[in-house]
Amino acid sequence: MIMTMVQAINQALAGELQRDDRIVILGEDVGRDGGVFRATDGLFEKFGPERVMDTPLAESGAIGAALGMAALGLRPVPEIQFMGFIYPAFNQIVSHVARLRNRTRGRFTAPLTIRTPYGAGVKALEHHSESTEALFCQIPGLTVVVPSSPYDAKGLLIASIRSDDPVIFLEPTRLYRAEKQEVPEEAYELPLRKAAVVREGRDLTIIAWGAMIPVAREAAASAEADGVSAEIVDLRTLSPMDRETFLASVKKTGRAIVLHEAPKTCGLGAEIAATIGESALLSLNAPVARVTAPDITVPLPKSEDLYYPSAERVLRAIRKLMEY
Amino acid sequence: MIERFDPLKGERLRVLDDEGRAAPDLDPGLADAELRTLYERMVRTRAADAKALKLQRQGRFGTYAQSLGHEAAQVGLASAMARDDWFFPYFRDLGAYITLGYPLADYYHFWMGNEAGMHAPEGLNIFPITIPVGSQVPQAVGAGMAIKHRKLGAAVVTTFGDGATSEGDFHEGLNFAGVFGTPNVFICVNNQWAISMPRSRQSAAPTLAQKAVAYGFPGVQVDGNDVLAVFAAVREALATARAGGGPTLIEAYTYRMGDHTTSDDAARYRTKEEVQEWDRRDPLARFRLHLGHKKLWDEAYEKEVQAAASEFVEKAVAEAEARPQASVEDVFAYTYSSMPPDLERQLAELKASLPEGRR
């Protein structure tokens, strides 16, 4: 069936609720309203208020409660309405969700999948456009996943829900309805901790995820006109990171660009560039380039286009690397 | 009984008076053997706590949060719990751990600096101690939601101090509990001090129990140095919770006789007179009087109880200290359900750098 990413997510959730009655969804407006992006549309009607719970407006309360539910054998899938509102729950995520397995030496675990829309590009209000994935990648115990297409969203979300580890599942709002794709009706899993080469090329590697994948594709298509063949690696799971896939690609192409929507400093680009420096230095024909948002607060919608990396910026980085 | 004591009117539930005489209409009516068990648990708690402090001073323990003065609250609340109830503690709950049958050697092992001590034995529904203040409250509510969802018929007890009532998680948790009508019993062990901050600097409300009113469920203040009052209130609240009657907030009014932790010096911020005043209300002394009135206590019994407590404690110390140091694998193993390649590499690198005996 041809569908958008938000429909694919909805289908993944419906299928998992059907398959496993330990799974519960909770969050603000996820029930009767079906979620502000309609990701949980129709689930309340189908599975009832015991499985799809509208909670009071309190993110820390919801994530703390989800952890308690998980410890007693449920598989909660809480939704934080926007990533910009996840910070009240940061203590629960960092101090408890991420480390419950470790601090009880495996007696209790917190297999939650925390879904949240993230990223700029939909002309939303202040606090609705941040990409702070790196904050979570620094925390041992968390798995951080970002899909870049409807097909991936369904397969990665199902794998996340079935994972025994807590997952921060970041859904790029910009891609929710950006493209439609053939998505199988039945359940399927895409492996976590595994990157994918989504475009093959010879001359350089672009490493990206989420909403930056279409930007990378656009830049790669333009570069083709210059006779440059770009490979694109979609990281898919940001942490724990699959380094082998992009290292193999960079060793083949000899050039690398890390592309992300988050600010530059201490972004994942730094981690990826350092990994390439550690393990593929002698394969490089040029320094690793980073194309990222600047280290500024996400501007309001009228200036949003200045913030997230454009295909033009990527293309300029490609040319620079090829001329190095 | 709980509704007879209105926190908004400053009423406090008390079973035992200063002379250890029980109010007949409030006495939970425990059998003689059960009364003695309460006392023995309190004595064990005090002995285990004193030992922990000593071990810390000798460098055999890490930083430790003493329970001195909290024995009635801790033992009373845990004695009211059933085997299938869940416990979400804070960090000053030694008597509850002992009462619930948590191996003291494990508890010590944790405070000696090994996470393995917080691996609750199977069959004990006890969460690890919580250090970030108040964060266990919404978790306990989630446990209550799961119990309701799975129709398990159990209840959840969570403890926290007076300082925790200032935290957002206290509010969020109690608010969720009210909305979802969860089987939770919230026990605020009001020991008057959050490190150096007195109770009056945490809330302008005359009691902490009255906060329950705003969440739409009952709250009661009990004498936290009266083991029978704590037991009776928690037993009733648990019965209400298990029967689907929703949550209760219980404020156990007590005093932290020791420093906040072994890293603290309470003499910097409170007077000797205040501590002496509370020493006169010692929970063990009062309960001893009660047992005396019932002809359940004499010197010979006391000697026997103290000797048993001492043996119990020494055995746990020996067991905890005999445990091997955590292996380097163990320190890595519980980060994820399976070890990612990155961690495997980091483990190998670290191992290679370690001396023979630590690998």
Architecture overview:
The complex is a heterodimer of chains A (324) and B (359). Chain A has eleven helices and 14 strands. Chain A starts with a strand and ends with a helix. In chain A, helix 3 packs parallel to helix 4 and helix 8 (212-225) packs across helix 11. In chain A, helix 10 (268-279) links the parallel strand 13 and strand 14 (289-293). Chain A is α/β, with parallel strands linked by helices. Chain A has helices at 5-19, 43-47, 59-71, 90-97, 100-103, 133-137, 150-162, 212-225, 243-253, 268-279, 311-323, and strands at residues 2-3, 23-27, 52-54, 75-79, 113-118, 143-145, 167-172, 181-182, 196-199, 204-208, 230-234, 237-239, 256-263, 289-293. Chain A has two domains: 2-182, Thiamin diphosphate (ThDP)-binding fold, Pyr/PP domains (Rossmann fold); 196-323, Rossmann fold. Chain A is globular and about 60 Å long. The longest helix of chain A has 15 residues, at 5-19. Chain B contains 13 helices and eight strands. Chain B starts with 11 loop residues before the first strand and ends in a 6-residue tail after the last helix. Chain B folds into two domains: 2-323, Rossmann fold, CATH 3.40.50; 325-359, no CATH class. In chain B, 50% of the residues are buried. In chain B, strand 5 (193-194) and strand 6 (197-198) form a beta hairpin. Chain B has a six-stranded parallel sheet, sandwiched between helices. The model of chain B has no long low-confidence stretch (mean pLDDT 97). Chain B is α/β, with parallel strands linked by helices and 359 residues long. Chains A and B meet through helix 3, helix 4 and helix 5 of A and helix 5, helix 6 and helix 13 of B.
Sum up the structure in keywords:
heterodimer; A: alpha/beta; Rossmann fold; four-stranded mixed sheet; 11 helices; globular; B: 359 residues; alpha/beta; 2 domains; six-stranded parallel sheet; two-stranded antiparallel ribbon
